[in-house]
């Protein structure tokens, strides 16, 4: 029998105003937590954090993160942790802040808590950090032995962020079910190097159903800077259901096609989730999914504002040679597109991109 593994954070907490209870979530792990946030997030959250710790007579250290998850910054912050005698790492903010907190925790061997201020990707729940150079160029992946001890989602803060960020998270989450399904069909390995558990697959499927049922309502709510039950459900889908589902369920063609699209300068100002959404449509074309399913995905994307055509990602005027380059990159050695239950060539991907674009136009 094959090995199956599911990874998840030790504790996932979500609610309106939960940041005001941050001390309650660190006290069982640490006597003096070390908290990092960039300048913008520091201004947004410092008073709330101060009040939580001072009202409970607890110590903590807070430090401004310089904005880049680099080895230099990780080492700078790690030295302060040692100097101040802290025993837990907390990151409040966006992806690079959270990744830096995870890396510091790994090198100091302390528990980590992440507090996302946006729900634009599923990265907070994963045991992975992406490290960049000081100039912001990709350096390496740091694979971590454990997922965060606590993921704390304050829906009041997240609902106040631009709606496009929440929608981008829906784009990333949209791929979760279809990629896990492909890995299950092919019996390929997840990001954990093991086969897909029934629990991970069920979370992936629930992620997709939650998006369909709540995506439009959640978008309308955050456009008006309010939170409601749909926003709560979408934040959980974008972060927890997609995070656990993708890490333990596996990736396939959608993310590989995203990786290929990053080579196009025309697409650089589009987010990870926006490019993944188009990659998901291309994956469905690639696997010759039922037309009803393709229509359902296109309708969802149109309703929330996710790309379904090359024009939607500013790639409608790129040359055939450039699109072929995208396809070549998508099938490079080591890409997750090879988890599909059939062999995929660059020509297959090129054709899928063109057909996905045409379907997106005709059904929009």
Short note summarizing the structure:
By secondary structure, the chain is an alpha/beta fold.
Key structural traits:
364 residues; alpha/beta; Rossmann fold; Dehydroquinate synthase-like, alpha domain; 2 domains; 6-stranded parallel β-sheet; two-stranded antiparallel ribbon; 13 helices; globular
Polypeptide structure, described:
The chain is built from 13 helices and 8 strands. The chain is of the alpha/beta class and 364 residues long. It has 2 domains: 11-159, Rossmann fold (3-Layer(aba) Sandwich), CATH 3.40.50.1970; 163-362, Up-down Bundle (Dehydroquinate synthase-like, alpha domain). Strands 1-8-5-4-2-3 form a 6-stranded parallel beta sheet. It has a two-stranded antiparallel sheet with strand order 6-7. α4 links the parallel β4 (88-93) and β5. α7 packs antiparallel against α8 and α12 (320-330) packs across α13. The model has no long low-confidence stretch (mean pLDDT 96).
